[in-house]
Write a structure and sequence with these properties.
This is RDD family protein. Keywords: Membrane, Transmembrane, Transmembrane helix. The chain is an all-alpha fold. The chain has 2 domains: about 1-55; about 55-130, no CATH class. Helix content is about 80%, strand content about 0%.
């Protein structure tokens, strides 16, 4: 019996060694994979954060200039339309510059509000400067 017990003990020791080697290699694999996956994910997140967080002054300036030029153009067209309609009734706009400024403010507010609430959620200046407004 002692030989059988010794053989059983030897087999148990060998099995224990094999399972300990297998589990340690699996643990190493498990710990290595998440580290590399986390590292890749964090690098991607850093790149996205860099792109999202940094807007150049040039792009922002171009966007604003384009949007303001569009607002000025719309305001001028609306002023001429209103002036033509009023002229049909025999009236005139006494202060065209003041009327233009009032129309410019109104058009600027409406232009930005409507385009930011639209499906694209960008003004034309932001589209041309490749900017995106996010919440």
């Amino acid at each position: 019996m002692s030989v059988k017990n010794e053989n059983n003990e030897i087999k148990k020791e060998e099995n224990a060694k094999i399972t300990s080697v297998d589990t340690s290699s699996q643990e190493n694999l498990k710990t290595d994979v998440p580290k590399t996956k986390d590292a890749v994910d964090s690098k991607k997140e850093d790149k996205v954060k860099d792109k999202i967080g940094k807007i150049s002054v040039k792009d922002s300036f171009i966007s604003i200039i384009i949007d303001q030029a569009i607002s000025v153009g719309i305001s001028a067209v609306v002023l001429f339309i209103i002036d033509g309609i009023i002229h049909l009734f025999g009236w005139k706009i006494a202060n065209r510059e003041g009327m233009f400024i009032i129309l410019f403010v109104i058009v600027n507010i409406i232009y930005n509000t409507i385009l930011h609430k639209s499906k694209a959620s960008n003004t034309f200046g932001e589209k041309l400067a490749h900017l995106k407004l996010t919440k």
